[in-house]
Amino acid sequence: MRVYLDNNATTIVDPYVFGAMEPYFVQKYGNPNSLHEFASETHPAIKQAMEKIYAGIHAPKEDSVVITSCATESNNWVLKSIYFQYILTGRKNHIILSEVEHPSIIATAKFIESMGCRVTYLPINHEGLIDPQSVRDNITDKTALVSVMWVNNETGAIFPVEEIGNICAEHKVLFHTDAVQAIGKLPVDVQSFNVDYLTMSAHKFHGPKGVGALYMKKGKELLPLLHGGSQMGGYRSGTLNVPGIIGMGKAMEQAVDALDFEMSDVRQMRDEFEDELLKIPDTFVVTPREKRAANTILISFRGIEGESMLWDLNREGVAASTGSACASEDLESNPVMEAIGAEADLAHTAVRFSLSRYTTQEELDYTLEVVKRAVVRLRGISSSYAYAPEGYKSGH
Ligand code: C6P
Q1: Chain mean position to CA 369
Q2: Handedness of CA 201, 205, 211, 215 (dihedral sign)
Q3: Is 46 close to ligand 1, i.e. is its CB under 6 Å away?
Q4: C-beta 198 within 6 A of ligand 1
């Protein structure tokens, strides 16, 4: 049996999404900006897809949604443009982030920090959560931007974006949220949450890879990312990725339709699976489940390196991860585990299981059996587990 439980890294393309995209490769392949029928026959589907993306995040018509190639691109764009617009010009000198943002935010922040921007990295607490008060405490009259993700990709923790949006609005500070892991898992509404910029990526909600977007509120527009033609309102020039846009629109529509299922049925399956995993001695999960997106579990098995666990799981057809796919090849400890202050050896034991609406009960039952076998085998050869001092296993 092959089981895919790495849906925070990427998801299967929904067959309806694939069906909607297919005609736009070989039959309707015109450049939408040309002046003939090959071009115009792409227009209705592009328009419809854009409307679905706007509707999915409750963006009003007058705001902009610019299609990009991925969330990494959208995140880079926000921070670098803020640097050019506010920091380089001397109007402001400071931005605020959480310390557990995705590398596409952290690495970009380090880059603009090296160019003279002051960056505050807000800590997370032992539950992997952020205190909105810490945002308020760190805002100064020189703060240009606060960027805090909606849902953490490692733990599934839901960050208090509503409160943070309100605090930013109150202090007239721009607010960006990376909503990559929120779309399709939670209702996302840019208007009621006072969001100025919002990042999305289609392949995280059963759309194609290579397509993302950035939402920008009217009046808060960034500088153009790619100069050139008039595509995407001149904010990101270059021939449109027609099948990608159509796929993202369809995926957004499907994700919105499936939201109730995700929040009830997927959650229930996740919770029951987690209950069973936690019956294995010396395991623990970061972030209380009611404060997490419905699909994610970051679990530690004491005495077992996360990579060893993945190896055993993979041998039996189960795909999980030790955390963010972008960091999984460096064998470093999980950064969220480090940020919550887990001891060094425990920070290496994290395994992330992320479900989707395609996950079945049969797959989870099978995975549980594989995990149990792996725990017995790996603890049997783990010197840190076998010779652990008194109290080590219970976490004291
Ligand atoms: N997280 C994970 O395994 P791209 O691939 O550029 O569309 O998405 C980047 C990205 C940005 N923000 C968040 C919160 C993300 O989770 C991701 C991708 C994957 O957790 C791959 S590193």
Answers
A1: 29
A2: negative
A3: no
A4: no
Question: Under a CB-based contact definition with an 8 Å cutoff, are residues 3 and 367 in contact?
Answer: yes
Question: At 206, is the secondary structure helix, strand, or coil?
Answer: coil
Q: Is 80 exceeded by the pLDDT of residue 234?
A: yes
- Residue 244: what pLDDT? 98
Q: What domains does the chain contain, in order, with CATH numbers?
A: 15-257 (3.40.640.10), 259-382 (3.90.1150.10)
φ/ψ of 9, rounded to 5, equals -85, -50
The chain-wide mean pLDDT, for the chain, equals 94
Active site residue 326: yes
pTM for this entry: 0.95
Tokens standing for 88? 């380089």
If pLDDT is split at 50, 70 and 90, which confidence band does 327 have? low
Distance CA 215, CA 64 (A): 6
Ligand 1 atom index nearest CA of 321: 3
DSSP string, 44-100: HHHHHHHHHHHHHTT--TTSEEEEES-HHHHHHHHHHHHIIIIITTTS--EEEEETT
The token duo for 203 is 């392949």
3-state secondary structure of 160: coil
pLDDT in tens, 95-140: 999 999 999 999 999 999 999 999 999 999 999 999 999 999 999 9
Pocket test for ligand 1, best of 79, 151, 200, 324 (most atoms within 8 A of CB): 324
Q: Which residue is associated with the tokens 């539950």?
A: 127
pLDDT of residue 392: 53
Sign, CA torsion 308/313/317/321 = negative
Q: Identify whether the C-beta of residue 66 lies closer than 8 Å to the C-beta of residue 240.
A: no
For residues 353 and 293, the answer to whether their CB atoms sit within 8 Å is no
Q: Which of 310, 336, 250 is nearest to 51 (CA)?
A: 250
